[in-house]
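User: structure tokens for Probable nicotinate-nucleotide adenylyltransferase, please.
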Amino acid sequence: MTVAVRRAPVAVLGGTFDPVHYGHLRPAIELLEGLGLAEVRLVPGRVPPHRATPSRPPALRRALVAAAVDGVPGLVVDDRELQRPGPSYTLDTLRSLRQELGPERPLCFALGSDAFRGLAGWHRWRELIDYAHLVVMTRAGDRGVLPTALRDWLSDRETADPAALRTAPAGRVLFHPVARLEISATQIRRLLAHGRSARGLMPEAVWRRVAEEGLYGYPQP
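Assistant: Done. Predicted tokens:
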């Protein structure tokens, strides 16, 4: 029996991006190329349900992400969560994207392995896979130890074949290795708050705006 092959998947990578840096961008590029995706949409969150409210306003974080992906084929900024009031629930975002893309286009939601291990604490987490595949980004292949409930749920949904993401619009879970870049937004904010440079940790266009406008406390007087 012939398996239907759909158009290349669209992927979503969310975060506070406070600020955006190469630790966000490099994995996105590796997903784009390694999985043959049509595009990766970076989605800044307004009110993240599982972490502290971002230190900088939505419009600024969106502008920095837009600067970061400018000229990078396949990476785009998607601000739908910034336009939506209330907590930025992933389920709402995937529903919105599914409406936009239609019922047949493969959609992937990318998240880190740490976030995946805590998935059972997310808002209506079992429904996510009704709208998208889950792509779990692992560092050096490390999946970590999964809670029993999540491990049982995963047992009949996991695939080791990236091609499976093209043969259905949603419903599978793929673990995919990406580069380990020891960069964090917390680290960058700490550097800038102490008057130290974060150059080289983020795209030059982002760094220049951060430096020239004194964002995140940089430069110091």
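User: Anything notable?

Assistant: The chain has one domain: 10-182.
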